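Contributing new records

If you add data, match the layout below exactly. Sequence lines come first and carry their own label; structure lines follow with theirs. Keep one chain per record. Anything else will be rejected by the validation script.
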Amino acid sequence: MVVIPKIRGFICTTAHPEGCSKHVADQISYVKSRGPIANGPKKVLVIGSSTGYGLSSRIAAAFGSQAATVGVFFERAGEADNTATAGWYNSAAFEREAKAAGLYARSFNGDAFSDAMKAEVIEAIKADLGQVDCVIYSLASPRRVHPKTGEIFKSALKPIGGTYSNKNLNTGTGAVTEITIETANEDEIAQTVAVMGGEDWEMWMDALQSAGVLAPGVQTFAYSYIGPTLTWPIYKNGTIGRAKEDLERAQRALDKKLAPLGGKAWVSVNKALVTQASSAIPVVPLYISLLYKIMKEAGSHEDCIEQMDRLFRERLSNPQPDEAGRIRLDDWEMAEAVQGLIAKRWDEVQTENLSEISDFAGYQTGFLKLFGFGLEGVDYEAETNPVVPVPSIP
């Protein structure tokens, strides 16, 4: 079949297998061009490894420090008349590249929140690797089934304490409009924390530690975002922010639990980027479009792979934590000069000048790349087979 992008709202319902493969190959090439990562981890578990920061973490670990990697994700395989999800194609491409490079790579597809998945991954680590010295937690899901109670939680992207109105970008039409979002109630706050907070990260680490598969000196990372004050009502001070606060609670708890191993838990605050998760958050796509233009012109723009390469290459051995103990990979984004320009252009931006003062085109390009479209060297008019195996998944 010939695969074309079919966009519905903030998602693309198709993905291109060769395009996703090229996207993975480009990330691998970047890491390899930077040379070996000194003193990097050697056995890495990535929970949420198929797209965005999780995928780039797996790539940086494998091709930067020659690490054996285990990846966990929840993706859909392709069928004769229907494409797989981008994460499935990404994972298939990663495993092929890892095998060609002589690197161990094993993947698991299913509900990462479940006890069954945790048990299956632990048995694989015992059998194949013995222990892991790094655990990346990068899950992004709109819902979670609690493994103990069976209760289903659903996240809500809402402000807390009052209705919120601000500029917003319709990424389908390119129109700058105003959006008003009603305040979250207590149940919506609690459910968002249950989905996006730190409980499952703790459950994973507790299960791994109890099973004896965490190596001495193990480090674990979960990813977060803070952003500028203009996004705080919907992000830092909203329901997502409450979940991120719980992530930091979990980090402190894990620090104590890992102390007997000489281990350490970190929350890494990363840069705002076009990901499948960020595309769904009101206000954020407009902010990212403005941010991209400023940072690209300044020569300081990074995508997921540059961020994760910097994490593994520079911050594992020299974390440079902030006053709250967080690693800050958003440091270039939050520079005073960058945020000063953002604030100015935020006041000025409207539909008529969007293309002039923002990089909405770059936003759109980045979004399509997530699904394997718009990559150089890929023949998008050619027939392609949507059924692509992930080698380690039966």
